[in-house]
Amino acid sequence: MLLKEREFNQEIENTNFHWILDEGLFQFDDEDVVLFWTKSELKTFIDTIEEVTGAESVRVVLETAGYRAGKIISSFYAKGGKSMQEVLESLPNVYTATGWGAMEYKNLCLEEKRATLSIRNDWESKVVQAQGKQESGTFIGGHWAGIFTGLFGETMWYKITQYSTSEAGSYKEVELFPSPMTPNENIREYIQSQEQQTIMQLEAMVENRTMELKTMIRELSSPIIPVLDGILVTPIMGRFDQERSDDLIEKVLQAIMDHKAKMLILDVTGIQAMDALILSTLEKLTQSIQLIGAVPMVAGISPELAMEMASKGIYLKGLKCFATLKHAVHYANALDGMHIIKKEDESL
């Protein structure tokens, strides 16, 4: 082969490296290739992808990319006119010559379509070590599974059966075997796990937000208001569930103790319809108030609500009931031996 000036050719282990410097061309077996520094450029490339997509995403992507690239490589060597055994036996030397690591078969059985490949000081382990990780990596294993899949015409997969690293280098063994597992299955499983994780995160956010809203509603819907010495008012409004009912009773009893109140007025002006749970809440609440020595009263029962309660047979027996909160406050004040008078105009 006649070479041009600044054109170089080198054959190593039956593989050809070709440079044409004036054209910026570097070829491996007549295909364009490019070199990367392993521990700097290649590491930075993978680090950047991990930063954007996450380490688990990169693991699946590299495995899938390795597998697909391996299938492409297998078709390239299958066209060379060599037998499958010749191709398979030559590949470890080819990859060793191109800097993928020192590779050789520990065993290779064409009949069973199985192999175990030993690899020392591969580029992927160098990147992983530079990242400060302990994993074996997924690209090379997936790549060889793709090569075997393409050559045998049957789905093959891999397993890392041994992996170790030290300052002297790395060592791994890759077992290759027929399997229904493919990167497509891994991607689907990964996507499903990511979707499930997203759903769980959203459910947790909704649950947290719901709890916050429930707490806010409880605080806003049933405030306990001191109106005069010894007299508290609690507006009852909105819908009730068992949790809110229990919380209201606990909060009212604690407020009576804290304020040393003698009377508590339950203002039901905001209740449009008296259901069984609200009635049960009022009964429990008034009985609990009486048990700690205070006097319960009910205010704000409108004519419409009174008629509805009567039609349903709901009667608040033994309770002082008032049409308005003003009447209830006046009564409670009088019960305490006091009354409200209008202040005379001092200018007269």
UniProtKB/TrEMBL annotation:
Organism phylogeny: Bacteria, Bacillati, Bacillota, Bacilli, Bacillales
Protein name in the entry: STAS domain-containing protein
Record-linked Pfam families: STAS
Keyword Secreted belongs to the record: no
Keywords: Phosphoprotein
Coiled coil feature spans: none
Domain STAS: residue ranges: 221-332
